[in-house]
Amino acid sequence: MRALVTGVAGQLGHDVVNELLRRGEEVIGSDLAATYSGVQDGTAVTTCRYVPLDITDRAAVERVMREVKPDVLIHCAAWTAVDAAEDADKRELVQKINGLGTEYLAAACREIDAKMMYISTDYVFSGQGTAPWEPDCRDFDPQNVYGMTKLYGEEAVRQQLSKYFIVRIAWVFGVNGNNFIKTMLRVGATHPELRVVNDQIGTPTYTLDLAVLLADMVETEKYGTYHATNEGGYISWYEFAKAIFEEAGMDTKVTPVTTAEYGQSKAMRPFNSRLEKKKLREQGFTPLPDWRDALHRYVKLLREEA
Ligand SMILES: NC(=O)C1=CN([C@@H]2O[C@H](COP(=O)(O)OP(=O)(O)OC[C@H]3O[C@@H](n4cnc5c(N)ncnc54)[C@H](O)[C@@H]3O)[C@@H](O)[C@H]2O)C=CC1
Predict the structure, then answer these.
(1) Tens-of-pLDDT digits for all 306 residues of the chain?
(2) Which residues of 120-146 are buried (b: 16+ CB within 10 A; e: fewer)?
(3) Which residue of 17, 64, 80, 302 has the lowest C-beta tally within 10 Å?
């Protein structure tokens, strides 16, 4: 199988490339930068063929897809700065990357008859209520620019392709980038007490674990939309922060606050990010490990890297 992976310089793309290389697959990584030398992540060094590609450049997308001619495109590239996406001068760019870039890639997949895997987000839903969101629920109602543009990408994939996987994830953490865990460890090191919201509920996703599932999935023809976060139940950011400090052996005190008490961020955040994942088991895929186990391995890896 020849796989083209966009966003190789990001958290997820980096781990997906490593997982595919580990399995002996032919992998071509892609990102914005002119060159990419790979990243030491404590367990492996990414050494794959690299093709620079700005996915907002339609002609470049068509050219690269025709040249590389992958059997599968794993599309991990995105604008992921959720608050900055709200800035008036950024909105168009965010839509170009998350919306139009995905549309161009889907069209190119159709042309060369490649499978496409698109990584999406819980932010396509309203975040209202307490019931977990089903993967095939079409009751979309994104509450911020990032969510709207990711939904545009989903619709483009659904409209143009039949051989697609849309995988929605949430609360992502990986070694190759910034995330909530790294922020907590950094800020907690200099602040004895932190306020963290306890009314936004979801489940973390460790990119190293997700990469295993994605590599399993693209080998199949079990197309459709899936939800994939770690197992272990739904938690609040407050509970996650407490677990992080406990795992790291830090005595930073965490105080639970509501989103209203914490103060509004630029982008609206969903209260209910519960993603229903039972479809994974029903389709014969191995679910991700418990998030506590993932956190344990992740903090250990960060320590080894330091
Ligand atoms: N980070 C999170 O908490 C969540 C992420 N997701 C989705 O998961 C996927 C992977 O996310 P991460 O690895 O965390 O993202 P990341 O921000 O670590 O990496 C994204 C990569 O996309 C690249 N990129 C940006 N604009 C590009 C362009 N015009 N052309 C080519 N490449 C471009 C960046 O250079 C970067 O390397 C994304 O689709 C994201 O929307 C979904 C839910 C939550």
Answers:
(1) 999 999 999 999 999 999 999 999 999 999 999 888 776 555 556 678 999 999 999 999 999 999 999 999 999 999 999 999 999 999 999 999 999 999 999 999 999 999 999 999 999 999 999 999 999 999 999 999 999 999 999 999 999 999 999 999 999 999 999 999 999 999 999 999 999 999 999 999 999 999 999 999 999 999 999 999 999 999 999 999 999 999 999 999 999 999 999 987 999 999 999 999 999 999 999 999 999 999 999 999 999 887
(2) bbbbbbbbeeeebbebeeeeeebbbbb
(3) 302
| Predicted TM-score of the model (pTM) | 0.97
Does ligand 1 come within 6 angstroms of the Cβ of 39? Answer: no
Sign (positive/negative) of CA torsion 52, 224, 210, 152?
positive
For a pocket test of ligand 1, which of 6, 64, 80 has the largest count of ligand atoms closer than 8 A to its C-beta? 80
Per the annotation, the verdict on 234 as an active-site residue is: no
Residue-range domains of the chain with CATH: 2-176+204-230+275-288 (3.40.50.720)
**Residue 52 carries which DSSP code?**
E
